[in-house]
Design the sequence.
């Protein structure tokens, strides 16, 4: 079986993986969540362009599909899990739990990496996710958690160990939830059929302008809220038919 390993799309995917790997090292050695966030942004850019380039060059392959998921679980699964673990270790408990109880509880944050792997594996075999997603996409989840980590690093948010665990479990559950999340895949550039996407982009730009510090976190939370409301409304409409 002749498999081309070093195609341009695969190199972009590997760049995604390397950026994520570097982010893990940065978090564990320097605790700089800001630097790790920028590495995740770089990974997300590579993740977007590897598929785009693969389609453009006609180099879509089963190897590329599997490699993409492996890279994504590192950059968008392991990195936020390690960040939450690091924050947990550096935070105080509201209830002053004994160390022999509090320390092992911190490993619960790794559920983010595990459920990210489940989310990515499901995506690979789920044909219904071509136009929308089932559950929160891993890049959005990673950006949400890393932006929260940066806010904590800047002293704008205070998280106790209990809140870190609660956020980690909630984020993991969102990854594998049945909520249908809209995708920013345009059906042409006309307004018809793209109202939600254009509206979301417009509001996101306003958040970036007027809520600079909290904008990234706010955009992902908005995405989750709008997708959830849309999903509930659609489900209710289908029930009434």
Sequence:
């Amino acid at each position: 079986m002749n498999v081309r390993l070093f195609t341009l799309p695969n190199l972009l995917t590997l760049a995604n993986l390397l950026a994520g790997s570097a982010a893990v090292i940065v978090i564990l050695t320097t605790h700089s969540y800001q630097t790790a966030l920028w590495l995740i942004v770089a990974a997300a850019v590579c993740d977007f362009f590897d598929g785009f380039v693969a389609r453009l060059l006609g180099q879509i392959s089963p190897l590329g599909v599997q490699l993409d998921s492996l890279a994504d679980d590192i950059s968008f699964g392991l990195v936020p899990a390690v960040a939450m673990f690091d924050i947990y270790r550096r935070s105080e408990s509201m209830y002053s739990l004994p160390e022999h109880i509090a320390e092992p509880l911190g490993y619960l944050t790794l559920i983010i990496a595990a459920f990210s792997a489940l989310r990515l594996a499901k995506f690979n075999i789920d044909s219904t996710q071509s136009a929308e997603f089932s559950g929160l996409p891993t890049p959005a989840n990673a950006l949400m958690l890393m932006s929260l980590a940066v806010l904590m690093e800047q002293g704008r948010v205070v998280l106790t160990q209990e809140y870190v665990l609660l956020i980690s479990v909630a984020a993991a559950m969102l990854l594998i939830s049945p909520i249908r999340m809209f995708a920013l895949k345009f059906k042409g550039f006309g307004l018809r059929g793209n109202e939600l996407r254009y509206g979301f982009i417009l509001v996101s730009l306003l958040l970036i302008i007027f809520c600079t510090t909290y904008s990234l976190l706010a955009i992902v939370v908005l995405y989750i809220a709008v997708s959830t409301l849309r999903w509930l409304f659609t489900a209710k409409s289908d029930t009434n038919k």
